Amino acid sequence: MAAVEKLGSGSSAENNASSVLERLKKRHQTRLEDAERRKEANDSLKPAEESAEYFESEFNRERAAVEALLLRAGPGASRAEAADALERATAELAALQKFVSDSVMFLTQYELSRAQAALQTLHAALNAAREEALPAKKFAFRARKKATGKTPAPPPSADATGGLQHVTTEAEQCEFSHLSDVNITKTAEEIERRDVLVTHLRNCRVTLLGAPSTLHLKDLRGCDVRCGPVRSSVFVDRVTDSTLALACQQLRTHNTTDTCVYLHVTCKAIVEDCARVGFAPFTWSYPGLERDYAASGLDQTRNNWSAVDDFNWLAADTPSPNWSVIPEEERRTTWDT
Question: 197 versus 21: which is more confidently predicted?
């Protein structure tokens, strides 16, 4: 009888072990399914604008619009019609240039090169259409008596490296890269209403005085970057062990680690694939900051510096481990100018 009871106990233990293994398997499967759902939800949160397919579709559509305007300015158009079409084509092309600049963060080098080549072709076609439809007026020789002696500027042309043709627009770029251990200062005259690209810097201090259109910070290490109010967005990618002082409408931060951000943002801040990023209110100041705020259109009374969305963390009831608020006693209070 005792032997029967012992056998029964063993059978019960086996059943319990089997039950535990089954529960563990189900729990593991549930975790896998939850992880997949989080990944799908994370992907769905990414704006449609941040995809190569969207970029190509929008770029081709806008390019076709510019080309159609250039055709309207061709043979058969009156001078007034040609002037109107060329003016609109110039504005559309400037907007397309800005679209490419704003998309540079998620484009491959091949995609960016193709877009730049297409822009160069459009610039050349626009210049040719303007010369044909609206030729420059010829001056009489008597005008030479009043000449100031200044040499007229040469027409826009492509540089020797095959870069974009230089066309003066409000979306013109200001770019500097591949520098180490230097202090860089740009004045309002150099960056006002421009797209500023700062890339591949090591142990540099960058001071941007003015109100640029957009700001791109990419591949920085050990850098100190301060920028005046940005009219639209700031894009940060692959920044490590740095300090940033930024004021903007929207901040998008990718692949960034061990970095402190002193922020004034009127819309929202977004982080993705980041770790150990700290946030605190924007405290940098310089002569002319109030003027630059007015020029940028940012609302100084509205600052969502601590309202950060982490696209890699979807648990609403638990704070993201990838970013934090910098404790007040650890925040930077003085800035060397």
Answer: 197
